[in-house]
Amino acid sequence: MVFQSLAVSTGNNFLYAASQRRNESFAAVTRPPHLIKSYPQLSTGQKVCYNTTMPKRTYQPKKLKRARTHGFRERMKRFDGRKVLKRRRQKQRHKLAL
């Protein structure tokens, strides 16, 4: 049985190979309604594989440290940081800080 994962439709062949090797740990779901609008190729009846054994890793401590070091609030606290923000405003940057 060949599973066609969401990674294949987005072009990532590594995840497709991994889903073929470990297909017993994936649950095949046919056309979840909330994904049909965002992925039109699912409306054709392709199967999407989800990994049911690994939880999502949403806690990223490096991102928190990066925001605390280079974020907008940190820039506003210090004189040099306010100078950085001023320069970025003059250049009309859309993102002043993280």
UniProtKB/TrEMBL annotation:
Q: Name one GO molecular function term.
A: structural constituent of ribosome
Q: Region Disordered: start and end of each range?
A: 78-98
For the keyword Ribosomal protein, the answer is: yes
InterPro entries given in the database record: Ribosomal_bL34 (IPR000271), Ribosomal_bL34_CS (IPR020939)
Keyword terms of this UniProt record = Ribonucleoprotein, Ribosomal protein
Q: What ranges does the record list as Basic residues composition bias?
A: 84-98
Q: Name one GO cellular component term.
A: ribosome
Q: What is this protein called?
A: Large ribosomal subunit protein bL34
